[in-house]
Write a structure and sequence with these properties.
Length: 311
């Protein structure tokens, strides 16, 4: 109601007979929106229940043209770029024709999927025997800011709010499943897995040098985003690390610079002593000259550090 300015509720039910089908359902009005969606999917001969949000680009009587969804996809993509970490425990996948994609990390929707037919999903799946209703409701609550951002036309106050208390250091690193069962191709090419490996490697090195009580990963920035790794050097001095998986340090710096600047200087941010871009390969002479320019000409405390993994 507050998004659309309705004088009264369009329907008293979230799901209606028009939006409930034998194997899936979406919220009332969802054909022309980013829809909250639940449904059964057959994966490896097992029925799994999906829950999350989706765009259905299949034309129908209630959606004769997908044109109404195109600006909403742009806003979805904008939100994914603004808050890339917020749905890191979820996956995306899509159906196009009779083909289902593999799962992939939450990311902007590719232009070639925005055409009549495909179905693009962001969320989770669980085997039917292991359905957790509390998890479904919690995840729907977490996805509400994304829905509000998309359906409000991209209002800043409809997205994730800044934490009211700002930056407060909280020690601790995430325990992630071991990657020993991953194939060589997955370890090399899966961006999400590679990022996790680099993050774990960097955290372990910093813990060994500075102590576990001074290192935290996926740390809230106080701005509705998360910093890959935070190092507390003193009670008043912090270093922020942003990890990138690109092959070249130049690409890593290019991708990370906007993020670390926001972490440090957006209104309400806690300004760190150093902003460190981290990648797998060593910085070359041109890269060092570029960072010197940023340090000396613009007084930006940006640095680059190589992460060396023990394969």
């Amino acid at each position: 109601m507050r998004l659309r300015g309705f004088s009264k509720r369009p329907s008293s039910d979230i799901f209606t007979s028009h939006t409930i089908h034998p194997r899936w359902a979406f919220h009332y009005g969802g054909r022309t929106e980013l829809q909250f969606n639940i449904g059964l999917e057959r994966v490896s001969d097992v029925d799994e229940l999906r829950h999350g949000v989706a765009f259905s680009f299949e034309p129908s009587q209630s959606l004769p043209s997908i044109d109404v969804l195109i600006p909403k996809v742009r806003l979805f993509n904008d939100f994914m770029r603004l808050y890339p970490e917020h749905y890191g425990d979820m996956c995306m996948w899509h159906h196009a024709g009779h083909e289902r994609s593999a799962d992939y990390a939450p990311s902007p929707i590719l232009p070639d999927l925005v055409r009549p037919g495909p179905f693009v999903f962001l969320g989770k799946r669980r085997p039917v025997a292991l359905i957790d209703y509390d998890e479904i409701l919690t995840d729907f609550d977490r996805l509400l800011p994304l829905y509000e951002y998309v359906e409000s036309g991209g209002r800043e106050d409809a997205g994730l709010p800044a934490a009211p208390t700002g930056f407060t250091f909280q020690t601790g690193c995430t325990e992630r499943p071991a990657a020993t069962t991953a194939t060589l191709a997955e370890r090399e090419l899966n961006v999400s897995l590679r990022h996790n490996l680099l993050q774990a490697g960097l955290s372990a090195r910093l813990i060994a040098e500075y102590g576990a009580e001074n290192v935290a990963d996926e740390h809230p920035s106080g701005l509705g985003t998360k910093i890959d790794v935070v190092l507390r050097r003193t009670p008043e001095e912090y270093w922020y690390y942003e990890i990138k998986t690109a092959h070249s340090p130049r690409s890593c710096i290019r991708e990370a610079l906007g993020q670390v600047m926001e972490y440090a200087y957006w209104p309400g941010a806690r300004e760190p002593r150093r902003l460190i871009v981290s990648g797998e390969n060593a910085l070359d002479d041109d890269g060092r000259a570029y960072l010197r320019q940023l340090n000396e000409r613009f007084r930006l405390p940006v640095a680059y550090e190589q992460i060396v993994l023990e394969e």
